[in-house]
Design brief:
Order of helices and strands: EHEHEEEEEEHHEHEEEE
Structural class: alpha/beta
CATH architecture: 4-Layer Sandwich
Radius of gyration: 15 Å
Largest sheet: 6 strands, mixed
CATH topology: Purple Acid Phosphatase, chain A, domain 2
Shape: globular
CATH superfamily: Metallo-dependent phosphatases
Number of helices: 5
Strand order of the largest sheet: 5-6-9-10-12-11
């Protein structure tokens, strides 16, 4: 299964006639890790005629009134796509009381509420979040610190992939956006990233 993951930046090059757009043409699934306009997700869904799932970022303020058409929010849900299970968690660390911001204990509680479903599904193959795990791709300011409970999730459930956004960074090559923790590839999907499973 070929996956296009996007977050935080509207990357027009994936829509234009280019080698990058050609790589995206046959994607089977699009995953958004947040902080993108709902109209952009609708455009991606329609352009590539692929299923699109998303979580919300800390700047996704309009989704309640203008959600992306034909796309599915997987926040605090486990969904199956092409034989793979995906689990999603929206939001970032609390820093000013805005929407989709959570304290560590709140995010831990959100994960615990899925404990039975996670056990029944054997965890998840792909975890989709906005924020990063603590000390993996995150930063030290209040807004961009990752969640420690995500590190525990990785150790306990051992997903194959842990996708996140939120941390804006330009990458010269794809290897710079990936950190392997045990057997889990933690991937910063800032902009866009294409991979196969």
């Amino acid at each position: 299964m070929k996956i296009l993951s996007v977050s935080d930046k509207v990357s027009s090059e994936i829509l234009e006639t280019s080698s990058i757009a050609a790589q995206c043409r046959d994607v089977d699934l699009i995953i958004s890790c947040g902080d993108l306009p709902p109209e952009f997700l609708t455009l991606l869904r329609n352009r590539f005629d692929a299923q699109l799932v998303y979580v919300l970022g800390n700047h996704d303020l309009r989704y309640n009134t203008s959600s992306p058409v034909g796309c599915s929010c997987i926040d605090r849900r486990i969904v199956s796509v092409g034989g793979y299970s995906l689990v999603g968690f929206s939001g970032s660390r609390w820093y000013n009381g805005g929407v989709n911001q959570y304290r560590e204990r709140e995010m831990s509680r959100r994960i615990r509420r899925l404990r039975f479903a996670l056990w029944r599904n054997g965890g998840g193959d792909i975890v989709v979040t906005h924020a990063a795990p603590r000390h993996i791709h995150d930063a030290e300011d209040r807004c961009h610190k990752g969640f420690t409970c995500y590190n525990r999730f990785i150790r306990k459930y051992r997903p194959s992939f842990f996708l996140h956004g939120h941390i804006h960074r330009l990458f010269k090559e794809d290897g710079e956006r990936i950190t392997v923790v045990d057997n889990t590839q933690v991937i910063n999907t800032y902009g866009f990233y294409i991979f196969e499973i």
